[in-house]
Amino acid sequence: MPCCGDYGVLVDERAVVRELTRTASPPLVPEVRLRLAEEPFATWTATRADDPPFWAFAWAGGQVLARYVLDHPDVVAGRRVADIASGSGLVAIAAALAGAAHVTAFDVDPLARTAATENAALNDVVVEVVQADVTRTPGLHEALQTADVVLAGDVCYDPDMAPPMLAALRACAARGAKVLVGDPHRPYLPRGLASIAEYDVPETGNLEERDTTRAAVFVLRN
Questions:
Q1: Global pTM?
Q2: DSSP code at position 166
């Protein structure tokens, strides 16, 4: 769908996503196919966007969360699932593959909306993709109000982003949703979260300072 906005010029989002990526599988989640880029800074420059193209990469926190969901389908099977800051849609797609009754993927970036939609089609699953900033929406978005399970991969990467994101997640937990967070132990992840699974994510040298990144799945309680 052509659009104009953060990118400053009229663009065809689908063409941008396809031009900057190729179809590949994240190393920890080979069951899923995604449109992925190889080099973050060149991809960012090519988008001419203010924000980095988080949607073009399979981040370690998202990979471990997707892996956990696929290995433990009972967590989402038959349930309504929301994936916050979905990016490529990896975690949302994993939830759909694991048998979730309905999956909604949220991201503020219009290119993430397009990428997640493209990636869901690649995997023959249905994911509702919503362009919204869940930290700024008054109250909880309807899909968050009704979600049984809320998933969030790699949302604590920034000191300004982590507090409002965690506040939105805690609001979900407060109303009774199961909230799972995937994170590679970043400095802004709050202490005291219960880790329920740990994984070594290979081939992360293009995004992290190391080729293999240790990341965990945490339960966020009210």
A1: 0.92
A2: H
Q: To which H or E segment does residue 104 belong?
A: strand 102-107
| CATH number of the structural domain 58-220 | 3.40.50.150
Residue 137: what pLDDT?
Answer: 66
Residue 77: partners with Cβ closer than 8 Å, 6 or more residues away: 98, 99, 100
Q: Around Cβ 71, how many Cβ atoms within 10 Å?
A: 12
Residue 10 pLDDT: 36
Tell me the C-alpha distance between 152 and 212, whole Å.
21
Residue 186 per-residue DSSP state: -
Q: Where would I find the H helices in 87-216?
A: 90-97, 110-122, 142-146, 162-174
* pLDDT, tens digit, 9 for 90 and up, residues 140-168: 678 888 999 999 999 999 899 899 999 99
153, 207 in Cβ contact below 8 A? Answer: no
| Structural domain boundaries in the chain | 58-220
- Spatial neighbors of 71 by CB under 8 A, at least 6 apart, are none
Please give the pLDDT value at position 149.
98
